[in-house]
Amino acid sequence: MSGAERRMDQNRSIERDAEPDERASGTLVHTRAEMELGAAMWLSMAAEDRGFARLDWLTKGVAVLRCGRIFTAIRVPAALVEAAAGTEDRQRIGEYLTDALVGGPAFIDETSRYVYFLVPPSAARTWRTPETVCLTNATYLGVPVPGASHHARSHWLVEMAGAGDLCTPGAVSQVVMNARLRIASGQASG
Q1: I want to staple 53 with a disulfide (CB 3.0 to 4.6 A). Which of 47, 136, 142, 177 is the partner?
Q2: Is residue 184 predicted with pLDDT exceeding 60?
Q3: Residue 19 falls within a domain, yes or no?
Q4: Does residue 11 sit within a domain?
Q5: pLDDT value of residue 18
Q6: Mean pLDDT of the chain
Q7: What is the per-residue DSSP string for 87-112?
Q8: For residue 45, what are the CA distances in angstroms to 42, 50, 117, 121, 183?
Q9: Residue 54 pLDDT > 80, yes or no?
């Protein structure tokens, strides 16, 4: 059984059997699997067919979702994100982005060498940052299954913390501006 199949099986059992844990302090605690399930269910609302999206995540690790419904994405060359983070190491880039995006989600397609930042659909109306593209509602995007391994072709650098968790366009713009500053000053990674 593949990693994606195990995650989907775990998600199904959590969906049926588990309730979030409420600690003595009254704080609701969610497991990683619960957060991944919530993110997957929310993301699948952008699919033409939610069942096919879940099947594609299970079998291919990536589902094709339509931008502009519940989210859109800002596409940034991986080289800019590497420059902003000062490294090509994916784990360290993820750590950098977690701080820079205040937890907003981002994934990388290793084949195309683009990083995609999930943002509210309204960002498409105002986004004008050179060397980047904000995808429109006529765009379909291959989105990795929540929890995708860092060894997959397309994987999360910063996971969604849950349903509706998105980046602010301003935070993405800051990442790009930081990259340009590091490149201009000769501080960018190799």
Answers
A1: 47
A2: yes
A3: yes
A4: yes
A5: 41
A6: 86
A7: ---HHHHHHHHHHHTTT--EEEETTT
A8: 6, 6, 18, 14, 38
A9: yes
- Please tell me what DSSP assigns to residue 145: P
> Is residue 66 within 8 Å of 162, Cβ to Cβ?
no
Give the end-to-end CA distance of the chain in Å, rounded to a whole number: 38
Residue 190 included in any domain: no
**CA-CA-CA-CA torsion sign (30, 148, 90, 67):** negative
Given a contact cutoff of 8 angstroms between Cβ atoms, the answer to whether 57 and 63 are in contact is yes
CB 118 within 8 A of CB 76: no
Is 190 a residue whose pLDDT tops 70?
A: no
Q: What is the pLDDT of residues 120-158, one digit of tens each?
A: 999 999 999 999 999 998 899 999 999 877 778 999 999
Strand partners, 158: 106
User: Against a cut of 0.85, is the pTM above it?
Assistant: no
| Mean pLDDT along residues 76-84 | 98
Distance (Å, rounded) from C-alpha 16 to C-alpha 176? 42
In a domain, 189, yes or no: no
Rounded distance between C-alpha atoms, residue 122 and residue 119, angstroms: 8
Task: Please list the helix, strand and coil fractions of the chain in percent, rounded to the nearest 5, in that order.
Answer: 40, 20, 40
Pairing of strands 72-77, 62-66: unpaired
> Per DSSP, what are the bridge partners of residue 28?
22
| Count of domains forming the chain | 1
| Residues of the domain holding 114 | 3-184
